[in-house]
């Protein structure tokens, strides 16, 4: 059913002395209960779906507390992408006696298509999508012309607080945030995602050894790196470094990582099937995300301080002299905690400080402070 460009609700009309909303809708059955799918203009969303979390304690609500930090992000997403934003349907409950009138069997859709009539005094409760609703409201305040665009609504008949709370739990029970790697792979708006993809895809070595779908490598994976790790590393590498085009930023990052790769012959040996990726990840830390991130931070300093590729290429050759074995005492407490690699910010900084010192580079204040604390045994 196509979404109308104007409100799907017919003008308020009087029927049995009551004002009503009338929506074109599709009727379905789920778990033995009727539900309805309709379209609603964005301008009606803030008016129909009220979210008053302050008035009720959690046990008397059917939604989580609104994370107000997310709302401006959603609104900005709509406003910055007016021709390409996309939203999934809102899921809502309505606590009123509704009436569904199917079209004639000889008409469009038989008994599944028709009109859904809802009293105007009905209360609509969002079971899933309160952040989208708040983001839409904020975007409309800045650009009212968005009001005629529409969003799908999946509407259930409300049968009490307990059922609404269970719906919220069920709708979120199996919701899993996609892996960061596949998000980077599919994100065509974010420049750093584009840079990271291009750096990986243009390198025979990195293209062959980088996992682009998941952010965690299994013991049997033949990949050494994840795309999400390169994203974090490139973001650190290119921070506040702005060549005049995306292509030049890609070229700069590509050149840097090519030189880094030359310092780790084990990476090439994995690509040539002389060593297994699992062995390298198990025994060494230089292919782990924490080290790539640290090398990105160090690279940022080198690119800022150096006037030519030759100077920072010479510095990076010192990477060959470090003991990259996971069991080395040099990494315990810095990159490795109890035998496991840690990616916390503190561990990234401690790892960066260790590598920077080994390369004979001065430590910036933040790294110096955390390194001093670590050496005193206070970390």
TrEMBL record:
CDD domains: dndB. InterPro entries: DGQHR-contain_dom, DNA_S_mod_DndB. This is DNA sulfur modification protein DndB. It comes from Geodermatophilus sabuli. The lineage of its organism: Bacteria, Bacillati, Actinomycetota, Actinomycetes, Geodermatophilales.
């Amino acid at each position: 059913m196509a979404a109308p460009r104007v409100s799907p609700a017919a003008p308020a009309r009087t029927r049995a002395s009551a004002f009503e909303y009338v929506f074109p809708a599709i009727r379905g059955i789920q778990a033995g209960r009727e539900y309805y799918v309709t379209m609603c203009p964005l301008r009606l969303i803030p008016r129909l779906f009220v979210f008053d979390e302050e008035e009720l304690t959690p046990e008397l609500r059917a939604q989580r507390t609104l994370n107000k930090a997310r709302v401006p992000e959603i609104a900005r997403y709509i406003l910055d992408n007016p021709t390409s934003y996309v939203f999934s349907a809102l899921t809502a409950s309505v606590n009123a006696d509704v009436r569904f009138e199917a079209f004639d069997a000889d008409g469009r859709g038989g008994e599944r298509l028709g009109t859904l009539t809802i009293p105007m005094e009905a209360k609509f409760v969002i079971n899933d999508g309160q952040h989208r609703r708040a983001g839409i409201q904020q975007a409309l305040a800045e650009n009212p012309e968005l009001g005629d665009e529409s969003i799908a609504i999946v509407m259930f008949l409300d049968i009490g607080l307990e059922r609404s709370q269970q719906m919220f739990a069920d709708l979120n029970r199996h919701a899993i945030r996609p892996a960061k790697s596949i998000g980077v792979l599919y994100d065509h708006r974010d420049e750093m995602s584009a840079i990271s993809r291009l750096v990986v895809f243009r390198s025979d070595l990195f293209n062959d050894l980088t996992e682009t779908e998941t952010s965690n490598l299994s013991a049997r994976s033949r990949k050494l790196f994840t795309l999400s790790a390169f994203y974090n590393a490139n973001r650190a590498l290119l921070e506040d470094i702005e060549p005049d085009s995306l292509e030049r930023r890609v070229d700069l990052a590509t050149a840097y990582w090519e030189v880094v790769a030359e310092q780790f012959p084990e990476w090439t040996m994995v690509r040539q099937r002389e060593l297994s990726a699992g062995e390298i990840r198990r025994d060494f830390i230089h292919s782990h995300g924490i080290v790539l991130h640290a090398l990105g931070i160090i690279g940022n300093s080198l690119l800022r301080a150096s006037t030519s590729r030759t100077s920072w290429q010479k510095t990076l050759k010192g990477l060959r002299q470090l003991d990259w074995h996971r069991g080395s005492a040099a990494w315990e407490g810095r990159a490795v905690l109890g035998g496991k690699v840690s990616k916390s910010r503190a561990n990234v900084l401690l790892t960066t400080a260790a590598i920077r010192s080994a390369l004979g580079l001065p430590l910036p204040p933040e790294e110096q402070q955390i390194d001093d604390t670590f050496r005193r045994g206070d970390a």
